[in-house]
Write a structure and sequence with these properties.
The structure is a single chain. The two termini are 20 Å apart. The chain contains 28 helices and eleven strands. Strand 5 and strand 6 form a beta hairpin. The chain has two domains: 393 residues, no CATH class; 149 residues, STAS domain (Transcription Regulator spoIIAA, 2-Layer Sandwich), CATH 3.30.750. It has 689 residues and is α/β, with parallel strands linked by helices. The protein is elongated and about 115 Å long. It is a multi-pass membrane protein. It comes from Spizaetus tyrannus (black hawk-eagle). Pfam families: STAS (PF01740), Sulfate_transp (PF00916). It is found in: Apical cell membrane. Its main location: membrane.
């Protein structure tokens, strides 16, 4: 039987587009109000804030995150190649802006190790191109922490024209100029992606790609911190293969290791790892995480200051961190042109991590987020702070998990965290002058535990899906051994190639009937299936399109043990031979048969079926090549008196076949060529003569 299709009303797309355009361009007080409320979601939820119910959890989580944020911000400045003050600015402004614009109640937005690494790589490259020495250290004589003295904190300053900047600009000035220009452009990309609703780009970053990218970047971060751990002076490697080059330089200079830094690093790592393990083991009993990083930083700073580790043992320290805010400055346009390409992967990674964490929290706590608004939020978390000497931000998994575990209810906790950072910015920053860089490196390395533990999951990942494991390995290797940006691109391209290859060479099978049922399954996978006499049932488990057309035909011919083209050629050759023999005379053929028996001889013994049923249940779509392929096998098998029947086609495939003329002009033979189940097709084939 043939089911009757519904008649769909044709939509005039032009009129629909014009109507949407008129609606979007109209401006009414109600629409303006909704626009403002959507753009600043805080205006919707803050008036409904349940103070008695929420305030304690928000204050508690805000204080804990603030306490964690300060040491991490100072530490991650090493990754970004910038002074610690800029990391504190970044953490402060990001929390305030996301409080106003974010739709997630629990995400912690701020400084993030992977983003800091990507910023640092661009900053280092541009500093080298400008002729600066990446290994200049902060002079030990500057310690009062004032903004006025901060301008002297560069060991070299030049009257130079770099990218159109005609000014006396030292290393630090140029570095933060690059970072803010990069951040501004990344934010603009994210806002444009939000305007044009390009959030679908994140779909191409699979879980395997993101995990591999994070793990590979973590290896790069770990490598970059080793020189601080052991206190050696080696050039900061740039470009492709940075990880290998850095390790070669480390082993070449290992004899110059600073014993004071080595001992300090060993003690700090032991304390941090022990505290983290204990925190993970007893996290259900603890009301909030132990502020281990802050305790380590305070104790290490006191020991370094009173033990004069910098003067006596030449241990490298953080140096002066000024108090207050530097006057805002517009990012330089010419620098934006230099970093426009670098900003694209930064924008995508920042957005993807933020939206992924937002969706995870929303699902866990039963509320919804707006992915497009999240793109606007993280975009403006980059654009606005770039005027205030800040660099790129993103949501951070570790701080988000801490935030949810300490009772966070809304983004009011982000404001509390920002106030903690502000307190440090205004009053406490100079106290960290004597803090050793090796302590900051220890904090960074221990924070990578989660990403590095992904190596333990490789066997389980391989057991679940071998292709995804291969994608993870390729992405991780490229991110670590080449560069983070190239690694991300390699991961995306390789994962897409894997999908293409899997559709190019999908599973194919001949089906057998499950005894005493109307169901059919793969004859090689299941026992006790019975073959259907005179009928072959072929399944192709992928869309049929130009890339897998040849594989479809080869698999069909191999499984049915019949290539109709070769068989047709063999018959023509035989007929030609018979005609030549008859011309010479004789009542018998070359095989000694009578002329009447020639027709029987033409039918090959290997053709043991009279009908071919193609199971189309796994064919999601057909392109023009796919339709022509089915038309080709229909014609070729018809020449051998074998009928081709299609079963389980979806409406999209049926429409493609109709448009391609598979059923003829008037679709008259459609009922004899198309069936809604394999069993119906088999029954029809059996009833044929």
């Amino acid at each position: 039987f043939l089911m009757e299709r519904k008649t769909h009303v044709k939509i005039n797309r032009k009129e629909v587009m014009l109507a949407k355009l008129r609606k979007s361009c109209s401006c009414t007080p109600k629409k303006l109000k909704n626009f403002v409320m959507d753009f600043l979601p805080v205006l919707r939820w803050l008036p409904k804030y349940q103070c008695k119910e929420y305030i304690w959890g928000d204050v508690m989580s805000g204080l804990v995150i603030g306490i964690i944020l300060v040491p991490q911000a100072i530490a991650y400045s090493l990754l970004a190649g910038l002074k610690p003050i800029y990391s504190l600015y970044t953490s402060f402004f990001a929390n305030i802006i996301y409080f106003l614009m974010g739709t997630s109640r629990h995400v912690s937005v701020g400084i993030f190790s992977l983003i800091s690494l990507m910023v640092g790589q661009v900053v280092d490259r541009e500093l080298l191109l400008a002729g600066f020495d990446l290994n200049d250290d902060v002079p030990s004589g500057l310690g009062d922490g004032s903004l006025q003295n901060d301008s002297q904190s560069n060991t070299t300053a030049f009257n130079l024209t770099i990218a159109g900047m005609n000014a006396e600009c030292g290393k630090e000035c140029y570095a933060i100029g690059i970072a803010t220009a990069l951040t501004f452009v990344a934010g603009v990309y994210q806002v444009l992606m939000g305007i044009f609703r390009l959030g679908f780009v994140s779909m191409y970053l699979s879980e395997s790609v993101l995990d591999g990218f994070a793990t590979g970047a973590s290896l790069t971060i770990l490598t970059a911190q080793v020189k601080y751990l052991i206190g050696i002076k080696i050039p900061r490697s740039q470009g492709h293969g940075m990880l290998v080059i850095t390790w070669i330089n480390i082993f070449r200079n290992i004899s110059q290791a600073n014993l004071c830094d080595v001992i300090t690093s060993a003690i700090c790592i032991m304390v941090l790892v022990t505290a983290k393990e204990l925190g993970d083991r007893y996290k259900r009993k603890l009301k909030f995480p132990l502020p281990t990083e802050l305790v380590v930083i305070v104790v290490a700073t006191l020991v370094s200051h009173y033990g004069k580790l910098n003067e006596v043992y030449a241990s490298s320290v953080s140096g002066a961190i000024p108090t207050g805010f530097i006057p805002p400055k517009v990012p330089h346009f010419n620098l934006m042109l230099r970093v426009a390409v670098d900003a694209l992967p930064l924008a995508i990674v920042s957005f993807v991590f933020t939206v992924s964490l937002s969706e995870m929290c929303a699902k866990k706590y039963a509320y919804t987020i707006r992915a497009n608004q999240e793109m606007f939020a993280v975009g403006f978390c980059n654009i606005i702070p770039s005027f205030f000497h800040s660099f790129a931000t993103s949501a951070a998994l570790a701080k988000t998990l801490v935030k949810t575990s300490t009772g966070c209810q809304t983004q009011v906790s982000g404001v509390i965290s920002a106030m903690v950072v502000l307190l440090v910015l205004l009053f406490l920053a100079p106290l960290f002058y004597s803090l050793q860089k090796c302590v900051l490196a220890c904090i960074i390395i221990v924070s990578l535990r989660g990403a590095l533990r992904k190596f333990r999951d490789v066997p389980a990942r391989y057991h679940v899906n071998k292709v995804d494991t291969l994608v993870w390995v390729v992405t991780m290797s490229a991110s670590a051994l080449i560069s983070t940006e190239i690694g991300l691109l390699v991961g995306i391209v390789f994962s897409m190639l894997c999908i293409i290859v899997r559709t190019q060479r999908p599973r194919t099978a001949l089906l057998g009937q499950i005894q005493d049922t109307s169901f059919y399954e793969d004859d090689l996978e299941y026992e006790n299936l019975s073959s259907v006499p005179k009928v072959k049932i072929f399944r192709f488990e992928a869309p049929l399109y130009y890339a897998n057309r040849n594989y479809f035909l080869k698999s069909l011919y191999r499984l049915t043990n019949l290539d109709p083209n070769l068989e047709a050629a063999r018959r023509k050759k035989y007929e030609k031979k018979e005609k030549q023999h008859l011309k010479k005379g004789g009542d018998t053929t070359a095989n000694g048969l009578g002329i009447g028996d020639t027709t029987l001889q033409l039918v090959p013994k290997q053709i043991d079926f009279q009908a071919l049923v193609v199971d189309c249940s796994s064919i999601s779509f057909l392109d023009t090549t796919g339709v022509n392929t089915l038309k080709e096998i229909l014609k070729d098998y018809k020449d051998l008196n074998i009928s081709v029947l299609l079963a389980c086609c979806n409406p999209s495939v049926i429409d493609s076949l109709k448009r391609g003329g598979y059923f003829g002009k008037d679709f008259g033979s459609m009922q004899e060529m198309l069936f809604y189940s394999i069993h119906n097709a088999v029954r029809f084939a059996k009833d044929q003569k």
